[in-house]
C-alpha cells in the first residue's frame, strides 16, 4: 500500500472515532456511487452530515484543509445528492471538513470546519 493511501486510511479511522466521540451516529464510511465518494456520513440531532476528511503528516505543503479543491467539493455535493435521492427521509444536511495532522502514528491536530458552503 502506498504511503499516501496508508495516511488517508489512518486519518479516516481517526475521523470516524472522532465523530462517534462527539455525539454523531456513524452511518457510512467511504460511501461510493459511480466515481463519487463521501469519506464519512453521520447524523446528529436530526441532521445528516457529509464529511470530507483530509490528513497530512506535515505542513510542508500547507495544512490539510488547504488542499481541498473546488472540484473535490463539487464531487462531494454530487455524491450527497445521490445519497439523498436514495435516502429521502433526510431534510436537513450539512457539509463538514475534518482536517487531521499526524506526527508518526500520533494525532497532532484535529480541526473540524462545520457547515462548509461551496
Keywords:
31% helix; 2 helices; 5 strands; alpha+beta; Trna Endonuclease, Chain: A, domain 1; 5-stranded mixed β-sheet; 118 residues
Explain what this protein looks like in three dimensions.
The protein has about 120 residues and is of the alpha+beta class. The protein has one domain (about 5-115): Trna Endonuclease, Chain: A, domain 1 (3-Layer(aba) Sandwich), CATH 3.40.1350. It has helices spanning about 5-20, 70-85; strands at about 25-35, 35-45, 45-55, 95-105, 105-115. It has a five-stranded mixed sheet with strand order 1-2-3-4-5. The longest helix has 19 residues, at about 5-20. About 25% of the residues are buried.
Distance between the termini: 32 Å
Shape: globular
The total strand number stands at 5
Name given to the CATH architecture? 3-Layer(aba) Sandwich
CATH topology: Trna Endonuclease, Chain: A, domain 1
Task: Estimate the mean pLDDT confidence.
Answer: 91
How large is the share of residues in beta strands? 35-45%
What composes the largest sheet? 5 strands, mixed
CATH class membership:
Alpha Beta
User: Into which percent range does the helicity of residues fall?
Assistant: 25-40%
List the helices and strands and how they pair.
Layout: H1 3-21, E1 25-33, E2 36-44, E3 47-56, H2 70-86, E4 93-103, E5 106-113
Parallel strand pairs: 3-4
Antiparallel strand pairs: 1-2, 2-3, 4-5
Amino acid at each position: 500500500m502506498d504511503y499516501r493511501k496508508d495516511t488517508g486510511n489512518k486519518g479516516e479511522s481517526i475521523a470516524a472515532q472522532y465523530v462517534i466521540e462527539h455525539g454523531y451516529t456513524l452511518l457510512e464510511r467511504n460511501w461510493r456511487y459511480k466515481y463519487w465518494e463521501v469519506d464519512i456520513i453521520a447524523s446528529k440531532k436530526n441532521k445528516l452530515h457529509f464529511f470530507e476528511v483530509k490528513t497530512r503528516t506535515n505542513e510542508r505543503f500547507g495544512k490539510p484543509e488547504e488542499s481541498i479543491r473546488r472540484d473535490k467539493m463539487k464531487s462531494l455535493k454530487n455524491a450527497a445528492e445521490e445519497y439523498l435521492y436514495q435516502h429521502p427521509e433526510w431534510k436537513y444536511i450539512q457539509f463538514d471538513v475534518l482536517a487531521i495532522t499526524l506526527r508518526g502514528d500520533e494525532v497532532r491536530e484535529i480541526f473540524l470546519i462545520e457547515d462548509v458552503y461551496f
